[in-house]
Write a structure and sequence with these properties.
mainly alpha; two-stranded antiparallel sheet
Length: 327
């Protein structure tokens, strides 16, 4: 069997898995939903739970997982680093700092239906990305190495500020921040999806359009430049697109770790390293992966729900160690 046929079969299997998750998982919960319940209002409560709670939650999980996984695949190609994730550049810690500050100050306003915590998370994520980019641009004209180091430094600095605010804050504030930092998909209705989807879709389209350039950049910046790629513009575009996309996900769902590292690696082993296949495969597999993790978290100890961030960390931690030892 040729490699092209094998890749096509693998990608088709990932596509089928993703569609199966979207169709089947809304029926799964503390109690199984009858197959006829979604199509008949006669089922009353089960009908409403299916369409008002389970479907939007599954869609939110799929969208968040897709964005994180796609961002991870793009960052790994951009930085030529198999351990790079969407949170490498301090986006998660910036969002966490925004939320911690909002909780500490007692912010309780909302704008366009969005809570102060969500708005603060997005502003913090965007601010962290802007700071990392400004530092790398100032010191080395935007080199990927400096960007990675600046991201790690900014992440640790923001984490220290978070710990200081938690230390001087109340126990109630500490609990709220810690619960948010576990990540969660406890959404009800479609309001958040209508805000998250456009931001994520716009960033994802931009990233997909730059896949050929990322294939060349994964070989080396000099090689990409020799093939006519404007390296500086490409890096800025990919960096800002991933940061916007991940910032939106973190603002609505909290920091859900390891999805952006685990899923691209699994897809790379299944479909190969060519980003024109790897990127869409990571998009689909990441969505299905987070849907399955969220389903496990909300059913394994029902009626108690385990935050999905804990589930992904339990999977991603050993995977990270295995990858580190293997490499």
């Amino acid at each position: 069997m040729s490699s092209t046929v094998r890749t096509a079969i693998s990608f088709s299997a990932i596509l089928l898995l993703s569609l199966s998750c979207l169709v089947a998982v809304p029926f799964i919960g503390g109690t199984m939903t009858p197959l006829a319940a979604p199509f008949s209002a006669d089922y009353g409560l089960e009908h409403r739970i299916f369409w008002s709670i389970r479907v939007p939650r599954v869609l939110a999980a799929f969208l968040a997982g897709s964005m994180l996984s796609l961002g991870g695949a793009c960052f790994q190609a951009l930085f030529r680093n198999s351990l790079a994730t969407p949170y490498t550049l301090g986006v998660s810690s910036g969002a966490a700092l925004g939320v911690t500050t909002a909780v500490w100050l007692g912010a309780s306003f909302s704008i366009a239906g969005q809570s102060a915590m969500s708005l603060a998370a997005f502003i913090g994520a965007a601010g962290a990305a802007a700071l990392v980019f400004a530092i790398s641009k100032w010191r080395s004209n935007g080199s990927t190495e400096t960007m990675l180091l600046a991201g790690v430094a900014v992440s640790f600095f923001f984490s220290s500020i978070i710990m200081f605010i938690q230390y001087i804050g109340s126990h109630t504030d500490l609990f709220r921040v810690m619960r948010w930092m576990m990540g969660g998909l406890e959404t009800t209705g479609y309001k958040d999806l209508l805000l998250l989807a456009p931001l994520s879709a716009a960033a994802a389209i931009v990233l997909m359009l730059h896949i050929p350039e990322l294939d060349l950049l994964s070989v080396g910046e000099d090689f990409a430049a020799s093939r006519g790629v404007n390296v500086a513009i490409c890096k800025i575009t990919v960096f800002l697109s991933v940061s916007l996309m991940v910032g939106a996900v973190v603002a609505f769902c909290g920091p859900i770790g390891f999805v952006g590292m685990v899923c691209p690696h699994i897809c790379r082993r299944i479909c190969g390293a060519a980003n024109k296949i790897l990127a869409p495969a990571s998009f689909l597999f990441g969505g299905a992966f987070l849907v399955v993790c969220d389903t496990f978290g909300r059913t394994i100890a029902s009626p108690i729900e385990i935050p999905v961030g804990i589930v992904t960390a339990l999977i991603g931690g050993p995977f990270f160690l295995w990858l580190l030892c293997k490499k």
